[in-house]
Amino acid sequence: MDPAGRFATSYDQDSALVRTRAQAVTLVLFLILLMLGPLFLNAKLMSYVTLVCITTIAVVGLQITTGMAGQVNLGQASMIGVGGYATAFLSTTYSLPFYVVMPIAGLAAAAYGALFGVSAARVKGFYLALTTIAAQMIFPFVILNLPSSWLGGPNGLRVIPAEIFGHRMISDTSLYLLCVTTCIVMVYGAFGLARSRYGRAFEAVRDDELAAGMTGLNVVWLKTLSFLIGAFFAGIAGSLTAYQLRFVSYDQFTLFSSIWLLAMVVIGGIGSITGAIVGAVLVIGLQDLVTMSAPTMLSLAPSLGSSFVFASINVLLGAAIAVVLIFEPRGLMYRWSALKAMYRRWPFAAR
Amino acid sequence: MRSYKALLAGVAMFATTSAFAETDYTAVGFVDFSGPFANIYPDIQGGREAVLAWWNKEVGAGLGVKISLPIYDIRYDPAQAASVWPSAKAEHNPIILYGVGGPDAAALQERLPDDKVPMFMSGNGYGYSWKPGSWVIGTRPTFAHELGAFLDWYETQLKRPVRFALVTSDASPGFVDIARGLESFAKDNPKVELIEVIYTQMQPADLTLEVRRVVNAKADIILTPGSVAQIVAVKRALESLGAEIPVVTEVHAGLTAASGALGDPNALNGDYEVCACALAVEGETPARAFYDKLAAEYGLKSQWSSNTILGMGVTLASLRLLEKAIAETGADKVTGESIRNMLESTELDPDQTFGIYPTLKWSAEAPFPVTGAATISVMKDGKITLAAEGSPLPAITKW
Predict the structure, then answer these.
(1) pLDDT value at A341 more than 70
(2) For range A239-267, the mean pLDDT
(3) Mind listing the pLDDT tens digit for each residue in A154-201?
(4) Which of A117, A140, A195, B345 is most enclosed, with most CB atoms within 10 A?
(5) Which residues touch B272 (CB under 8 Å, ≥6 apart)?
(6) Cis ω on the peptide bond leading into residue A347 (within 30° of 0)?
(7) How many CB atoms lie within 10 A of CB A259?
(8) pLDDT tier, A313 (very low <50, low <70, confident <90, very high otherwise)
(9) Contact call for residues A60 and A185 (beta carbons, < 8 A)
């Protein structure tokens, strides 16, 4: 809902991503602050933002597949893994620069995701979820059973660090800048997709695929495409993970990770790109808060014992997420939109 | 006269403060209190903390060094380890990092040489980390070395080649590595015959079919180094098949834990546990005496278990290297790099680790010991007793 007095008078205005001057200024300032982060952020916050950026890319990809197109995907972590392994393979075997490797890694993951997207054309709901779990199961099986000289087998693969103008990107600062920049580009792309004809078509398929088909949309192709695009995002996230850790191993990309990614989508708000970002920021933030605050709590109350403090604080994290979902199952972005609408309509009634 | 006394007092005060000037260093500890190893980490961390308290008082004070140990829970997750480490490093500037296992090794192994902080692991080394120049330092050899030492010893008991099966999992590279290592060991060793590697889940519901194959193939022994759930599944399968084949466990999922899971303190009667370290056996041993001292004087509350021993052992080994670095560089100039530099020139006698480890020796080729000996215990009448000590680790071709 737009602020009072703002009326779109053209299609471009109506579909604009940034709708007011205040929004534009805020966004630009935020992006400048983000890029200047290494100047004022401490090491912890830099690593937090780096991790959030990588995760956000994967969660936004999942939002496209699951939130926008309505196709459940419990195999997103395996697609991140495909991107990670493609990065390791291409960077070590062919010594390709990172700006070539990353798009190829994204495409490799997209191809893997599209395989399961095709099956989405035939099954839906619970059965589709099971099919995507197969993607998660097949991934380690393939890694382990291919010759070790290809993808390292159980040994994993080392990754040659990303390099730009002869500078190896191994410091926290350079990795931060790489991840933030990539995240901005990918999120911008996702917003662009959401506003495009494909975005609208995805939503049409999600809301009623029979009706969507009746309007002339190619439902099978759109479902496959949603997996392909979502997996491309995952592949880029995998590539960044590989460059960050400089090592990939199949047990870094588990079903458990996929479930966390889906949880971020749900907590942030299904169907909203901003919701995906909020979900990633919040869940990772809470996880980090738990991890970092536990030593302080322990020093304040050493009699509780380290195992009790760490375990119970994780239970609190789970409880906090459960409470959010109980009181706002449509996600935080929905609540935010409702609050914003209420404020703008005040003193008139709002939902 | 008064001014002379004042000068003397000043010199004495200066000498006193100089003699007791203390340099504070930090060792960061990763723990897993909320992941898959939450059940064993209280013991491991208890062992770490008690040894550190002992060292600070009885060794560090004399050297003018004190070590603190802040801990971070990484939930056995590489992403968490990668996220936590930069801030832990910036905040504490640690000279030592105590790791958990595969996830933090995967997340940090490439950056630790740049960060110049050695990471000490209480668990086993792996074939894939068997390479020169690593900063992920093990205090135990690979599972294949430990289990190989057991098989060599068992062959001397049977006086014929040992037919064995392995139950493991492909859920993580570390468990696949056990199979690869034992395949390499068996290939070069005519005294053992590997019948089958059973790949199963970490928490299998039933292994009767798989164990039936092994029983029919007349296995002498079944190696179950993976998890307590796997040991339970194998024991139940053996019971339902009416077969009596001993199983061999490793310390992270050992006899005590497995018999507890089976609900009978003597459920693993006749079964074995192996480690290239001291085991929590009944009776007086140097490791037990040290444990008792820590429990009596340094607040060690963890039970007498193999995991407590592992926590004690890895801390002792790292602190012995620190002592050597202090002697080399001076108490106030120690860095992570100076500790890492001590590695290949150091040989720790069993006395230096209170018998927790055999002679510990690292080489340029491997960041964990590949020579030494293993201790084997057996469960008898609900008690864990020593079966063999000093069983030499076999030479295994790198896989």
Answers:
(1) yes
(2) 91
(3) 888 989 999 988 899 999 999 999 999 999 999 999 999 999 999 999
(4) A117
(5) B150, B246, B247, B248, B249, B255, B376, B377, B378, B379, B387
(6) yes
(7) 14
(8) low
(9) no
Report the pLDDT averaged over residues B375-399: 94
Enter the tokens of residue A105. 């890694």
How many other β-carbons are positioned within 10 Å of the β-carbon of residue A330?
A: 16
CA A336 – CA A318 distance, rounded (Å): 22
Question: Which CATH class name applies to B144-276+375-392?
Answer: alpha beta
Question: Token pair of B69, please?
Answer: 């140990």
- Ordered domains of chain A (ranges, CATH): 37-345 (1.10.3470)
What is the tens place of the pLDDT at every residue in A97-123? 999 999 999 999 999 999 988 887 788
**Token duo for residue A141:** 């099986």
Q: Which residues does chain A have within 8 Å of residue B79's beta carbon, measured at their own beta carbons? A: 51, 241, 252, 257
pTM across the whole model = 0.84
State the fold for domain B25-117+284-357: Rossmann fold (3.40.50)
Contact call for A307 and B42, based on CB within 8 A: yes
Where do we find the tokens 């393979």? A89
User: How far apart (Å, rounded) are the C-alpha atoms in residues A207 and A227?
Assistant: 17
Q: What distance in Å separates the CA atoms of residue A49 and residue A286, rounded to the nearest whole number?
A: 13
pLDDT tens readout for residues B95-145: 999 999 888 888 898 899 999 999 999 989 988 889 898 999 999 999 999
200-259 in chain B: CB under 8 A from chain A: none
Of A51, A153, A306, the CB nearest to B79: A51
Is A213 in the B-facing interface, judged by CB distances under 8 Å? no
The token pair at A133 is 């779990």
CA B18 to chain centre: 38
Is the per-residue pLDDT at B22 higher than 90?
Answer: no
Neighbours of A189 (CB within 10 A): 18
Closest Cα in chain A to B40? A307
Q: Under an 8 A CB cutoff, do A44 and B41 touch?
A: no
Where helices occur in chain A by DSSP H, the ranges are 11-14, 21-35, 37-40, 43-62, 76-93, 98-120, 126-145, 148-151, 172-195, 197-207, 209-214, 219-245, 255-268, 273-300, 306-327, 332-345
Pairing between β-strand B119-125 and β-strand B71-73 as defined by DSSP bridges: unpaired
Is pLDDT at A142 greater than 50 in this prediction? Answer: yes
In whole angstroms, what separates CA B287 from the centre of its chain?
14
Distance between CA atoms of A225 and A110, rounded to whole angstroms?
9
Cα-based distances in Å from B258 to A33, B149, B223:
54, 22, 14
Domain spans in chain B, listed from the N-terminal domain onward: 25-117+284-357, 144-276+375-392
Name the token pair of B327. 């002697």
pLDDT at B199 over 70: yes
Contact B45 A153 (CB under 8 A): no
Nearest to B170 among A140, A159, A311 (CB): A140
